[in-house]
Structures are given as structure tokens and as C-alpha cells.
Design a protein that fits this description.
Helix content is 28%, strand content 24%. The chain is an alpha/beta fold. The protein has an 8-stranded parallel β-sheet with strand order 8-9-10-11-12-13-14-15. The chain has a 7-stranded mixed β-sheet with strand order 3-2-7-16-17-18-19, covered by helices on one side. Helix 8 runs parallel beside helix 11. The protein starts with a strand and ends in a 13-residue tail after the last strand.
Length: 439
């Protein structure tokens, strides 16, 4: 029996358990599990001592393209992704100009070809001006979801009032992703603070009630309209407890930052390089996020990779832009949490492969099973490494996790049967395709 690729000797995390099996890949898909010993292949990967995961997915990434190539591009951001063990990512629409109409979406689909190292899904922005087009946009090839900024965005990309939010929810039927902060409360509290205050002021301005109020409003509208929602980067204990009662209409994302970093220490240590929206909060909220991971409230974990120039992040608060890098460091940080016993490897796969595929209707990815895309992330759970900024390939060149020691590291990334990263080296040419979604 002959294959394009054989992965031998690895410990595979499958939907039914963890077992040592050999995988046979043909035509970019998983052809066989437990291939015979006499099988041959064009390429054989020895995965002895490694765990073979379904290709991991970062479903929350801002590649800033079109925008500023000195900060990030499709090519550099997806290169960072595969170096970090990510086989598929979903790119946010708040670019310059934004992806908010059929013409820009068509341009972006063509632009991705030949530039992306991994497979990629595209968000389209929901705005007050394009509500009538959302049902068409969400069904376009390569689109993972409509993303609505219900707070914390430029006016053109924001739907902050209930009337327009309801209209947007009634336009289409696929799950809609939301940035949930209450814009009225944000603006009302803005004058309570002044330029040059400590960076920790960011979490005081964008307080817990700002996030919780936004989520309560969205849940009321979701129940009224019956629209399935995905609440992105949930950051408060109050929201996580509340969302358990809305499983019929809501799925939940938390970020690696809200699981890993804690205020006010992160602001004292990182300064502007700890400023993001929603803010990193105190230990009570981090503990609640881990409890929600353990009890199944959380469906997906993402990085919210949102790079800015180093000089911009060094400005005083609030002039420093919100957003942190993360697509390259997401897997190492989460593997370190596995090593520390905070979650199992199977739960990591659920949150970063199976979960994103289920939430977004991603076709052919998210599990190791016959017929699925041959996407794999091979990891060494025992490797000790330090995250260094010299490893970061995004042009901005920084990470809030610089100097962090981790246990566990991505050794190889395989996309549709193509070995695109091995031992910190990106291989070949960009072969990423647009991901496929159920419409």
C-alpha cells in the first residue's frame, strides 16, 4: 500500500482517545489510520516520542493586511502561525480598508493565494451600512463568520445600538461573532481618566461592567432573534457565569492572555505591551476563566493576535494602541498549561481544533479521522524552551511572552499533507488555501 505521506510512531489524539498509530495520507487527506507495517510513501515522518494532534486552529487573528506591512502581512503572519504549530487561522476584517463588501472580500480571497503558509478563513465585518448584504456575505466562499464590533472600534465598523444590532442578527443564519463591550459606558467613563496615568488604568476604564453589560444586551437580542452567537474574548467571571444559561444561542471564546497573565502585575511589567481589549484582569477573573475551561463553558481558545509597531506600544496610556501579538506563541503557552496540569491534552485539542470546527462550521478539519484534511500539529510535550523575541517573525518583532520558560513545543506543522514547518524551520513555498465552511 502506497501513500503520499506516512507519519509513523506518533501518539495520536483522536476523537475516541489517545493511541499510538501510523497515519497514511493521500491526496491531502487522511486515507488510513493504523497503516500496515509494509506500507510505503513518498515521504515518511518519524514521530516517535511526539504527540500528533489534529492541525491546531487559531480562530481569532488580525493579520493587518491590507494595512501596514511594517507591522504584519498575510505572508509574515501565517509564517508565524506555522512556526507556532497553527495549521489554520481565521483573519479578522478590520483592515485598511476593511473587508465589508463583496468586492473587498473577492479581492482578499485572490490576495491570499500564494501568500499564506497555512489554510485561512476570512471574517467579514458587520456594519450599519452593510446589514442588507450580510446574508450574502456570510455565505461567500472562505468566510468563517460575520464579525460585529459592538464596542471598541472605529465608527464605520461599529454597531453599538440595539436597533441596528437586532437588524444585523436578523440578516442571515450562520453563527455571528461579537466583540462585546458597551460603547456608551466606555465613552461615559472616558473623561474620568487622563493621559499619562499608569497603564493599569486601562482595566479600570474598560471595567467588568463594561464587558458584562455588553454581553447581557447581546444575549437578550440573541434570544429575541434566535441568532446563534459567538462571544469573543470573554474576560470576566460575571460573563462566564451568565453565559452558562444561554447555551442555546451562545458559544464562548477565551484568550490565552486571560488564562495566563494577571493584572495589575502585567501592566507594571509590560507597560503598553500589556494593553489589549478587553483588558487583562485580576486573579479572580483568571481563576474564573480556568474554571470555565474545566466545566465546558468555554468552546474555543484564541490568541487575538493584533500586532502594532513597537514605538506605538511604547507611548503613554491611552495613546498606546490596544492589541498584542500571539499567533506564534499560542501553542507553546497552552502546552505549558498542559504540562502544569491546568488542562489535559485532549481538552486542548477540543478547544483549539474540534471546538473551532464545530462553532464555525469548518469543513474537513478539527479531528484525526479518515477523510478529513491531513492537517497535523506534532508536539514534544517534554521539550523545555524559552520564548525569545529573536524567534518572532512578525515584523513588529515583539511578544508579551518574551523570556517565558515553557514545557512543550510544536515540532512540525502539516497542512493538507504538506510539511510546512519542522524544527523551527519553514519549508517550501506558501501553500495555504481558503478554508471551507458549511453555508
Amino acid at each position: 500500500m502506497h501513500y503520499d505521506l506516512l507519519i509513523r510512531g506518533g501518539t495520536c489524539v483522536t476523537p475516541w482517545g489517545t493511541e499510538r498509530i501510523d497515519l497514511g495520507i493521500r491526496d491531502g487527506r487522511i486515507a488510513d489510520l493504523a497503516t500496515p507495517a509494509h506500507a510505503t510513501a513518498e515521504t515518511v515522518i518519524d514521530a516517535a516520542g511526539l504527540h500528533v494532534l489534529p492541525g491546531l486552529i487559531d480562530s481569532h487573528v488580525h493579520l493587518r493586511d491590507p494595512g501596514d506591512p511594517a507591522v504584519e502581512t498575510i505572508e509574515t503572519g501565517t509564517r508565524a502561525a506555522v512556526l507556532g504549530g497553527i495549521a489554520t487561522l481565521f483573519d479578522m476584517p478590520n483592515t485598511v480598508p476593511p473587508i465589508a463588501d463583496i468586492e473587498r472580500l473577492a479581492w482578499k480571497r485572490d490576495y491570499v493565494a500564494g501568500r499564506s503558509w497555512c489554510d485561512i478563513g476570512l471574517y467579514v465585518a458587520g456594519t450599519k451600512a452593510n446589514i442588507d448584504a450580510l446574508a450574502e456575505l456570510e455565505r461567500a466562499p472562505g468566510v468563517c463568520a460575520v464579525k460585529v464590533f459592538a464596542g471598541s472600534s472605529t465608527a464605520a465598523l461599529m454597531i453599538e445600538d440595539d436597533a441596528h444590532l437586532e437588524l444585523a442578527m436578523r440578516a442571515g443564519h450562520r453563527r455571528m461573532a461579537f466583540h462585546s463591550e458597551d460603547e456608551d459606558r466606555l465613552q461615559a467613563r472616558k473623561n474620568l481618566f487622563s493621559r499619562g496615568q499608569p497603564y493599569r488604568t486601562h482595566m479600570e476604564w474598560r471595567d467588568e461592567e463594561c464587558a458584562f453589560l455588553g454581553t447581557r444586551r447581546l444575549m437578550a437580542l440573541a434570544q429575541k432573534t434566535g441568532r446563534a452567537t459567538h462571544i469573543l474574548h470573554v474576560s470576566t467571571a460575571e460573563e462566564l457565569a451568565y453565559l452558562r444559561d444561554f447555551r442555546d444561542v451562545a458559544t464562548v471564546e477565551v484568550l490565552v492572555n486571560h488564562l495566563t497573565q494577571v493584572a495589575p502585575d502585567c501592566y507594571d511589567t509590560l507597560g503598553g505591551f500589556g494593553v489589549m481589549n478587553p483588558p487583562i484582569r485580576d486573579e479572580r477573573h483568571r481563576a474564573a476563566a480556568w474554571a470555565a475551561v474545566r466545566d465546558g463553558t468555554v468552546d474555543t481558545i484564541g490568541s487575538d493576535h493584533a500586532p502594532h509597531a513597537r514605538a506605538a506600544k511604547e507611548r503613554p496610556w491611552p495613546d498606546c494602541p490596544a492589541g498584542l501579538t500571539g499567533v506564534q506563541t499560542l501553542v507553546p503557552i497552552m502546552l505549558d498549561h498542559v504540562a502544569a496540569g491546568r488542562l489535559s491534552l485532549a481538552r486542548l485539542v477540543d478547544l483549539m481544533a474540534t471546538g473551532p470546527a464545530r462553532v464555525y462550521g469548518l469543513a474537513g478539519k478539527g479531528r484525526i479521522a479518515a477523510g478529513y484534511d491531513a492537517d497535523f500539529t506534532l508536539v514534544d510535550l517534554k521539550t523545555h524552551r524559552r520564548i525569545e523575541e529573536s524567534w518572532i517573525v512578525s515584523p513588529c518583532g515583539w511578544t508579551p511572552f518574551a523570556g517565558t520558560d515553557v514545557v512543550g513545543w510544536p515540532i512540525a506543522t502539516i497542512v493538507r499533507g504538506h510539511l510546512v514547518m519542522h524544527d523551527d524551520t519553514v519549508l517550501g513555498a506558501p501553500i495555504g488555501n481558503l478554508a471551507r465552511f458549511a453555508s
